[in-house]
TrEMBL record:
It holds the Pfam family SBP_bac_1. Keywords: Signal. It comes from Gracilibacillus ureilyticus. Transmembrane segments: none annotated. Residues 1-22 form the signal peptide. PANTHER family: ABC TRANSPORTER SUBSTRATE-BINDING PROTEIN YESO-RELATED, ARABINOSE-BINDING PROTEIN-RELATED. This is Carbohydrate ABC transporter substrate-binding protein, CUT1 family.
Amino acid sequence: MRQKWSQMGFMCLFIFMIGFMAACSSDNQSAETSNGTDTESTDEKVELRMLWWGSQDRHDRTLEVIDLYMEENPHVTISPEFTGWDGYWEKMATQAAGENLPDIIQMDYKYLAEYAGKDLLADLTPFVESGVLDLSDVEDTYIDGGKLNDQLFAVNIGANAFAMAVDNAMFEEAGVPKLEPGYTWDELKERAKQLSDNLGEGVYGVQPNAGIMAFKHYLRQHNKWVYSEDGTELGYEDDQLLVDFLQITVDMLESGAAAPPDVFMTAGANVEQFPIVNEETAVAMDVHSNQLIAIESAAGRPLDLMLHPSLEGGELGHYIKPGQFLSVSTHSKEQEEAAKFISFFTNSIEANEILNAERGVPIAGKVREHLKENASDAGKKMFEYVELAQEYSREIDPPDPQGSTEIESLFENEVADPIYYGEITPEEAAENFRAKASEILAKNK
């Protein structure tokens, strides 16, 4: 009898041990799944949209990075939307009005305050604090440009500086000394005339720039800015500053130093059609350092970057600018996933090898050092130019106020374009601009 009970006890113990081991095995499998080591992902499917502007070269690079991200994150699908600069902000305005902005938006410094002020951009600070958006390898200098009132509305995806693209081989062919840092506006006019005279019919010294970016640079050299601190009026009182600035372009057009408008007005922001790409000018005055890679690629020959002219006795006009930002729209239902992609875009060395600093110098330290060491010739020129521009730069001005996009269009359509075509005098343009710009900015009071 005692032997029978002993046998039954042993069998019960045996069954208990088998059940215990099975339970442990089940728990281990659950743990593996929760730690992400199982081959089957438990992540829910996420669909994002991303919008950006740029050249075909930028489109190709960005699409490849999107594919890389989706390969590493198979639960995420990112639908790309891209266009050139022309029409980009009209598309954004239409989508904003329909409350249908993409999850991830390429943003520009001059539009940042306007879109944030209309509550269209999400504050990314909580994602930085949680570590979802990793900016631990980024210096404050590169972060601060995307902040308004201590809220982070945009992440800088490439620092750059205002520049001129130059073809030094054309300078050499024309027997004209190349431009060196510190040259003046008068020296630019003189050498541009020499280039036009010596390079033959249909080739000109410069593609002129009477646009607002160049005017901002000119104002900074006079220690002024376009807008007042509160954004309710123009920041300069003497209209002679705008008159003198526009007269530079008028002089170069009248002397033949600058290409006439029919040579460059059709190009817009399409680098493939820039006159310097087609060897119609030796200088393009309205570029940023991050554009060199695309311009060189389109031209198929080496080009260089040069600072804008100095003002004798004036202040430094240059500043280091966030080339573009990535922002997350408040319309997005997947803001955290969008922030994860921006973190990848910022920190992934593999992704940035594809991007190749086309948008500007990367902001993450390890990425920046890696790319600089392995950069193409055009990339090295860009890095070197940003370093040079830092020597001729001072602090960046605040983001443009609300209404600045309307003022940009006003300046382009009623100041720059009529000046190019000789339809208006600098004095008339300056007076007209002040009257209409003041009316727009008064709405901010």
